[in-house]
Design a protein that fits this description.
With 213 residues, the protein is an alpha/beta fold. It contains six helices and ten strands. It has helices spanning 47-54, 76-79, 95-106, 112-118, 134-148, 164-179, and strands at 8-18, 21-31, 36-40, 62-69, 72-73, 80-83, 152-156, 183-187, 200-203, 208-210. The strands form two sheets. The protein has a five-stranded mixed sheet, covered by helices on one side. α3 runs parallel beside α5 (134-148). The protein starts with 7 loop residues before the first strand and ends with a strand.
């Protein structure tokens, strides 16, 4: 059964720490297909830590994080794609080579040119990754999310470094993803406009406990 667009996130009594500092305590929430969760709060409060835990890249101190479909647990690497604030771009490659690598890894069935065009990078395929602007790196991260065909998108500061057109691209692409039944967890200092959806907002505070509103 194809579960890529029928995924939900369940968090139960989650506690997370870094070193000897507790960042999150007793957090419970649910994100359903078609929903977005906006994580906000000051630097160092735990937004990225929570994303890493949701991506199964960091183990909780207590509590449970589950990705499910039809009451079945789904491994995180089958449920989600993660766009980190600083991605794994390899500076020795050109943009087309970089994205082609990810398309092959993720079994993307769209052509390289079409995928580049979808994020406005069609004229940059020969540009060295090391020479890309911050906004172009963000567009590359968005292309990787789209290529993944995963139901859940985890996005760390997706608007950072983008101009007006780039922000509009994120809004449009994310809105389409949610309309198809995907979900998104977005860590951002600023709201990410989404067409037709009001994101749940979770303001992270010292040793936050409780649930999203």
């Amino acid at each position: 059964m194809d579960v890529r667009h029928n995924i939900r996130l369940l968090i139960d009594q989650l506690s997370l720490s870094r070193g000897d500092r507790t960042l999150i305590h007793g957090l419970s929430l649910c994100v359903e297909p078609g929903q977005a969760l906006w994580l906000t709060g000051p630097n160092g409060i735990g937004k990225t830590t929570l994303l890493l835990a949701c991506a199964a890249l960091l183990s909780p101190d207590e509590g449970d994080i589950r990705w499910t479909s039809e009451d079945r647990n789904i491994p995180a690497n089958q449920a989600l794609a993660y766009a980190a604030h600083r991605g794994p771009e390899r500076s020795e490659l050109r943009l087309g080579e970089e994205l082609s690598f990810w398309q092959t890894l993720l079994n993307d069935d769209m052509s390289l040119n079409d995928r580049l065009t979808s994020v406005g990078l069609q004229d940059r395929d020969d540009t060295p990754v090391a020479g890309l602007s911050a906004g172009q790196i963000r567009r590359l991260s968005l292309a990787r999310l789209m290529a993944s065909n995963r139901a859940a998108w985890l996005m760390d500061e997706p608007l950072s470094g983008l101009d007006v057109d780039g922000r509009a691209l994120v809004t449009e692409t994310l809105s389409q993803h949610l309309a198809r039944g995907g979900l998104a967890i977005i860590a951002s200092h600023q709201p990410v406009p989404i067409i037709g959806v009001t994101a749940k907002k979770l303001v992270l505070e010292p040793a936050i406990s409780g649930a999203a509103s």
